[in-house]
Amino acid sequence: MKKIMIVDDDQHISDMLVENLSTEGYEVVAAYSGTEALLLLSGTRPDLILLDLMLPGISGEELITKIKDIPVIVLSAKADIADKVGLLRNGAADYMTKPFDMQELLARIDVQLRKQETAADKNVLRYSDISLDQDTHMVECNGSEIRLTRTEYAILRLLMLRPGQVVAKLTILEDISIDTPDCTEDSLKIHIHNLRRKLKAASGKDHISAVWGIGFMLTDAS
After folding, report:
1. Domain C-terminal end among 121, 154, 170
2. What angle do CA 220, 135, 153 make, to 5 degrees?
3. What are the tens digits of pLDDT across the range 51-82?
4. Which of 30, 103, 128, 187 has the fewest CB atoms below 10 angstroms from its CB?
5. How buried is 204 (Cβ within 10 angstroms: 0-12 exposed, 13-18 middle, 19+ buried)?
6. Sign (positive/negative) of CA torsion 6, 10, 15, 16?
7. Cα(95)–Cα(201) distance, rounded to whole angstroms?
8. pTM (whole model) above 0.90
9. How far apart are CA 222 and CA 213, in angstroms?
10. Are 118 and 93 in contact (CB under 8 A)?
């Protein structure tokens, strides 16, 4: 369930937004000042923020500069073009002037959340029944999470970036050297053996093939 934070000191507007967003299936949290919003953000991370500008404590303009990697839709009575342009340049994802149409707001929320999902999905590598999240370093195979060492993760990531290609041993060693400088050609065989075993335990498939004298490649063999 997607979480939306409402930051507005107008109780009527806040209650109306909470009711409508909850009906649409969103989890909603409300703050009534910039200071309260900042405090809530220290302990929770919403997927999107609806932000008023005229707030007690920290203003909306100041608060938006402190929000990182969360789309913000500004809801404000300020209709001046310069205000809108300035906020968009300072990090707002969208701007709606009060009073606003609820259906239009819901549509704009949906657009921003879909953009966020698309961006996040670009950081997930997939091959057969394996998925690797480059942000969280979480690896799943056949629907089960697999615990990998730092070296095993680096090897799998490289192979998934080159699906169906043979990756030379030297290339693997050079590519993962920043993260695992202690990996040698001899220990590489052990790391790949352990990685192959973990993947096979999850899916029943031997996902890594050795190409004699050259290197290794991802496969989808049973």
Report:
1. 121
2. 45
3. 999 999 899 999 998 888 899 999 988 767 77
4. 103
5. exposed
6. negative
7. 50
8. no
9. 23
10. no
